[in-house]
Recover the amino acids of this structure.
C-alpha cells in the first residue's frame, strides 16, 4: 500500500457539464468525495464511464417516482482507485445528504464521511440537524478515527459556522482546514458576480492531526464554482499514532479472573490462527538467514497477538465508564437512547416545544428514574456483585469488593523482627540487603568461585535445550504490576499465556539458542 493517500473534496455543480474533463482533474488522487453530482439512480453509468480505473459508490437525494421541475440538485459519490479496493468498505447511512466508507489500515479503521447540505432548494435541511446526525453516526459506528469532507454551504462568519465549531470542540474534532489555511482562503467563486466564500470544510479527529502531510485548496482546478480541497494522509504515521494511543489505553484488570480467562481463550484462538503454520528450525550450527527471518517473524506475530488480545479485552472492559453497581443492568441502555435523542434535539436548535423536545424529555425521565432505582439498590447490587464473584470463584475480585465495602483502614507495621523505631528498622533492612547483594561477603565469594569453576569445566560441544519447566519457572518469577516494556506488554501478558503458547515459547527459545540469534525487537532495537 502507498505511504500516503491523497484525498480531495469537490462540489461538481452537476456532473454532466464536466464529465469530459473530470478524469484529467482528479486522476492523480487516491480518494475523491464528490458533492452535487445531480444524478438520478439510473444515471450511475455516467459516473462509471467518466472515471475508468476507479471504484464508485454514489447516492441521490431525488425521488425518481415523481416529476421534478428545473435542474436536479444534490447527490453524492465517493470514488477510490481500484488498487485500494482491499482496504475500502462501504457503510450504510440512513441520510440522503451524507455517505461514508471505512479504510482498514493495519488493525485500524479510518472513517471517511462525505457530506453535502443543499442550499436554496426544497430539500434543504437544518444544518444543526445534519451536525447532530453526524455526531450520532460517529457514536454508533465502530471506528478508530474520522475524517469528514463536506460542503456545508455556510460562510465562516455565519452563526451556523460558530455552532458547528463549538460542537466539533465538544466532540473531540477539529476543523483542520480552518486551522491550517490562511484566513483569506476561499473555496467558492460566484459565477454571477465573482464573489468568493469559504463554504467547504474538512473536519478530523484531534488524535490524527499529526498524520496529515498537507491541506490546501487547488486553485488551478476550475471545473465548477467550487474549488477542490486536498488532504494528504501519511499512512504509516496514522498506524503509529493510533497504535500508541490504543496501547496506552490497554490497561487490563489482571485481578479479575474473568478478564484473565477471556484473555487466555482469545490468545489461544488467535495463536492457532496466525501462528499454527509457522515452523522453527532447532538444528545446532544452522546459520541460515531464512531461519533467522522465521525467528523474527514468529516473535513479531506473538507480540502482535498479545497486543490484539490486550486491546480487545481493554475495550470490552472500558465500554462502560460508570463505576456504579447495577449500571449495566438498570441504566446503560436507557442512557444510550436518551443521549441519541438529546443529540437530535440539539441539532433541531434546542426548541422548547414540539415532538422532538417531548420525546427527549420523556427519555430523560426514563433515564433519571432508572438512575434513581440504581442508587436505591446500590447496597443490593454490591451484594449481588460480590455473590457473583464468589460463585464464579473470582476470589481476588470478591475480596477487593469486600475490602472496599468494609472501608477498613490499613495500618502499616511499626516493627520488623522485633526492631522498632525508624533508625533500627533502617539498620535491619541495611543488614538484609548487604547480606543478599554485597559481593564482599563470604557467601557471595563462594558462589562466584562455583560459577567460575562451572565455566572452566564447560563442554563447548554440549547442546543446551530449554524444556517447558524452564520457561514456566522464568515466567512465574516475573514481577507483576510493573511498567510495560517497549512493546507495551506487561509481565501479566506472559504470566497468563495459555499452555499452547508456552509450548511455542519453548520451541522459539530453543531455535534462538541453536542459531545463536535473537530478534531485534527482543533486544530492544526498533
Amino acid at each position: 500500500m502507498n505511504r500516503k493517500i491523497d484525498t480531495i473534496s469537490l462540489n461538481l455543480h452537476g456532473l454532466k457539464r464536466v464529465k469530459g474533463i473530470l478524469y484529467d482533474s482528479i486522476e492523480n488522487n487516491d480518494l475523491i468525495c464528490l458533492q452535487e453530482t445531480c444524478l438520478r439512480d439510473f444515471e450511475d453509468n455516467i459516473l462509471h464511464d467518466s472515471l475508468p480505473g476507479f471504484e464508485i459508490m454514489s447516492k441521490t437525494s431525488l425521488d425518481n417516482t415523481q416529476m421534478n421541475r428545473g435542474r436536479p440538485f444534490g447527490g453524492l459519490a465517493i470514488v477510490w482507485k481500484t488498487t485500494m479496493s482491499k482496504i475500502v468498505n462501504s457503510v450504510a447511512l440512513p441520510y440522503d445528504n451524507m455517505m461514508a466508507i471505512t479504510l482498514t489500515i493495519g488493525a485500524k479503521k479510518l472513517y471517511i464521511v462525505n457530506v453535502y447540505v443543499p442550499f436554496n432548494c426544497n430539500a434543504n435541511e437544518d444544518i444543526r440537524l445534519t451536525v447532530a446526525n453526524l455526531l450520532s453516526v460517529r457514536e454508533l459506528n465502530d471506528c478508530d478515527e474520522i475524517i469528514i469532507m463536506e460542503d456545508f454551504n455556510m460562510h465562516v462568519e455565519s452563526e451556523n459556522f460558530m455552532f458547528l465549531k463549538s460542537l466539533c470542540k465538544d466532540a473531540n474534532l477539529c476543523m483542520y482546514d480552518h486551522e491550517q489555511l490562511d484566513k483569506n482562503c476561499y473555496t467558492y467563486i460566484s459565477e454571477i458576480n465573482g464573489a468568493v466564500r469559504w463554504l467547504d470544510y474538512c473536519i478530523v479527529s484531534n488524535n490524527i492531526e499529526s498524520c496529515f502531510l498537507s491541506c490546501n485548496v487547488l486553485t488551478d482546478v476550475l471545473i465548477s464554482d467550487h474549488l477542490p480541497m486536498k488532504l494528504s494522509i501519511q499512512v504509516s504515521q496514522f498506524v503509529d499514532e493510533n497504535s500508541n494511543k490504543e496501547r496506552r489505553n490497554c490497561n487490563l484488570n489482571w485481578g479479575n479472573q474473568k478478564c484473565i480467562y477471556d484473555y487466555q481463550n482469545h490468545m489461544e484462538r488467535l495463536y492457532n490462527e496466525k501462528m499454527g503454520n509457522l515452523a522453527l528450525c532447532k538444528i545446532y550450527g544452522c546459520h541460515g538467514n531464512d531461519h533467522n527471518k522465521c525467528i523474527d517473524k514468529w516473535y513479531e506475530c506473538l507480540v502482535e497477538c498479545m497486543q490484539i488480545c490486550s486491546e480487545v479485552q481493554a475495550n470490552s472492559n472500558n465500554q462502560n465508564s460508570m463505576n456504579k453497581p447495577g449500571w449495566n443492568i438498570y441504566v446503560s441502555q436507557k442512557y444510550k437512547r436518551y443521549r441519541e435523542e438529546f443529540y437530535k434535539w440539539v441539532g433541531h436548535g434546542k426548541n422548547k416545544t414540539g415532538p422532538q423536545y417531548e420525546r427527549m424529555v420523556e427519555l430523560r425521565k426514563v433515564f433519571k428514574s432508572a438512575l434513581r432505582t440504581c442508587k436505591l439498590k446500590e447496597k443490593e447490587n454490591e451484594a449481588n456483585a460480590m455473590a457473583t464473584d464468589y460463585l464464579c470463584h473470582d476470589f481476588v475480585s470478591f475480596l477487593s469488593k469486600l475490602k472496599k465495602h468494609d472501608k477498613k483502614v490499613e495500618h502499616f507495621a511499626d516493627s520488623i523482627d522485633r526492631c522498632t523505631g525508624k533508625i533500627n528498622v533502617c539498620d535491619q533492612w541495611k543488614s538484609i540487603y548487604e547480606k543478599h547483594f554485597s559481593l564482599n561477603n563470604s557467601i557471595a565469594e563462594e558462589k562466584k568461585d562455583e560459577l567460575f569453576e562451572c565455566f572452566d569445566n564447560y563442554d563447548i560441544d554440549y547442546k543446551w535445550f530449554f524444556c517447558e519447566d524452564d520457561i514456566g519457572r522464568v515466567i512465574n518469577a516475573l514481577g507483576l504490576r510493573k511498567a510495560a516494556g517497549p512493546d507495551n506488554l506487561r509481565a501479566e501478558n506472559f504470566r497468563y499465556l495459555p499452555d499452547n503458547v508456552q509450548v511455542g515459547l519453548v520451541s522459539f527459545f530453543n531455535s534462538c539458542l541453536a542459531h545463536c540469534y535473537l530478534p531485534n525487537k527482543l533486544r530492544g532495537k526498533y
